[in-house]
Amino acid sequence: MKFLEIFLGILTAVGGFVEIGELLFSMNAGAKFHFSLLWVIVLGTLGIIVYGEMAGRIAAVAREPVFDVIRDRTGPRLGIITLVAAAIVGIATCAAEVGGVALILQLLFDLPYRLYIVLALVFFLLVIWLLPFRWIERVFGLGGLLMLVFVATAIAMKPDWGEVASGLIPKAPQLSSKAEYMSYAYYAVALLSSIMLPYETYFYASGGIEDDWSPRDVPLNRFISGVGFSLGGILSATLVIVGALIFEPHHIEAELPGTAALGPILAFGKAGLLLCLLGMFFAFAGATIENCLSVAYNITQFFNWDWGKRRKPGEVPRFTGIWLGVMVLASAIVMTGVDPVQVVEYAIVFSVVILPFSYYPVLRTARDRGIMGSHANGRVANALGVFYLVLVTLAAAAAIPLLIITHSGKS
Questions:
Q1: Residue numbers in the chain where pLDDT is lower than 50
Q2: Potential cystine with 7: which of 39, 78, 90, 141 (Cβ 3.0-4.6 Å)?
């Protein structure tokens, strides 16, 4: 039955790579810059595999989730700043995903948008309250696999695979102005951030503890993080390809989830539309649950309160109250009429700012032989960990200036 825990990796990857923000970022990256940003997806996918594997290994060996590690390795002052920032980003992302689910339901059944926000809220409250953690993994992990329709769509559209391969090599395209180069840099940072979102490691490590991982599950963790996040990377890459083939020739951008369905419709008709919408529903719903629970995990872990979906709600009242509050607050935010796409766009860019503060403690713990023993990082893991820590630190420094200069990539 341990093999079924692959769905933890699938849920984390699909919810992290193909939530509403990543869906539109990836398609618009293709629409604006053809295949030239595919290398960022490869770079980011390897990075989240490296840090996801480390976070999962720490959870299995030391039974420490990420915010235990952050508190113990950075101290309470810097830890609380990271906690507050992570909570704000988590709530904003959760709100955007609730809005995304409501938009998908509106496309499927054509009733008022705000009604679907209320129905989505009730749905999520019931799912998180009633379903055990493992069934949440399996239902939304398996449902998210319907997003593979985008892989089939990219293949059916017969791109020039030589051009696709050239996009995997890091290089800037030939652009006509400085403003376009700044926009390219903005999309590169935003794509990297959306792939290496910190809540993915928060949720993944907490999920490993929920599933009672132990040192003997270290190989399973390596397999799950490698397969799950690689799947997310492939999906993200195919979204770039579909965006380049459909939207770039017409000089338009994908601004709503429904526009992303155009590719599967052209390739497979009504069946493609249905698979696409259902896949997006499960992907956005998985991201909603991940972010909601991640905020609750982070706060309770930081303050050493009892936590866990594996326990009855009444046994962990603070944990239960936090995730209930997050879900209600997230739904209230999108009920105001704010654009969920704009909310998640800002959340993704601001999340890159906290990446170094989340990943440094993970690297420091994973390489500590006093804690990890024979499961501590080897030379390759340490080298990759340091490389990506430097990379996300540079991205964090550039993210907000690029957001302002390019007007969210519009220049």
A1: none
A2: 141
